[in-house]
Specification:
- This protein is of the alpha+beta class and 193 residues long.
- It folds into two domains: 77 residues, Winged helix-like DNA-binding domain superfamily/Winged helix DNA-binding domain (Arc Repressor Mutant, subunit A), CATH 1.10.10.10; 83 residues, Arc Repressor Mutant, subunit A (Orthogonal Bundle), CATH 1.10.10.10.
- It is built from nine helices and five strands; from the N terminus they run αααββααβααββαα.
- The strands form two sheets. Strands 3-5-4 form a three-stranded antiparallel sheet. Strands 1-2 form a two-stranded antiparallel sheet.
- A hairpin with a 7-residue loop joins strand 4 and strand 5.
- Helix 1 packs across helix 3 and helix 5 packs across helix 7.
- The protein starts with 7 loop residues before the first helix and ends in a 12-residue tail after the last helix.
Length: 193
């Protein structure tokens, strides 16, 4: 049997390892559970928060290219903004994994109208969305949010926590408002006075 000994610095290292190893943002409760399982001892939220604050202060140093951020009600290591241009080049190289235009449109509809059925998505887009919805489910950017109370009880779709990680937001209210994206000076056709 291995006996784990810990100190405040050691807890920080364990938290760093857990956050780093997590593919998505990791919630405070998950961190607490993992520490309690490893050390067989209760860890207060205050101790974990203090350790997280210390880790955030450590990575705020300019020597580090990454920082610890709270995203989607969890914590995740991300590159600092000044390195985004270099990261963007990497993403361009890997663009074959990029979302298609149809997937982006479908994802936007789901994000702004959630929970929403596939039929409602298809009514907005004007095309069949079976394949696109399936791909978004596979990429875990959307999830099944239940069933509608309408006839036939169709499946309702909503964005997932991975969606929030992917777009770097904490909740849906941080999405740009549609009114902010509309150019009021743009018009179609001739204006009548």
């Amino acid at each position: 049997m291995i006996i784990y000994i810990y100190s405040v610095e050691n807890i920080e290292q364990y938290l760093e390892a857990l956050i780093f190893a997590s593919e998505q943002s990791i919630r405070l409760e998950e961190l607490q559970y993992c520490l309690q399982s490893v050390f067989n001892e209760d860890f207060s939220v205050d101790i974990i928060n203090k350790s997280i604050n210390a880790i955030q202060a450590k990575y705020a140093d300019k020597r580090f290219a990454i920082e610890l951020l709270k995203i989607g009600n969890g914590y995740q290591f991300l590159t600092k903004k000044e390195y985004h241009l270099a990261i963007n080049q990497l993403q361009l190289q890997r663009s074959k994994k990029k979302l298609s235009q149809a997937a982006i449109e479908t994802l936007a509809i789901i994000a702004y109208r959630q929970p929403i059925t596939k039929v409602e998505i298809e009514q907005i887009r004007g095309v069949n969305c079976d394949y696109t919805v399936q791909r978004l489910l596979e990429k875990e950017l959307i999830s099944i949010a239940g069933k509608s109370e309408t006839v036939g009880k169709p499946i309702l779709y909503a964005t997932s926590t991975l969606f929030m990680d992917y777009f770097g937001i904490n909740n849906i209210s941080e999405l740009p408002q549609i009114k902010d994206m509309i150019n009021e000076t743009a018009t179609i056709g001739n204006q009548v006075e």
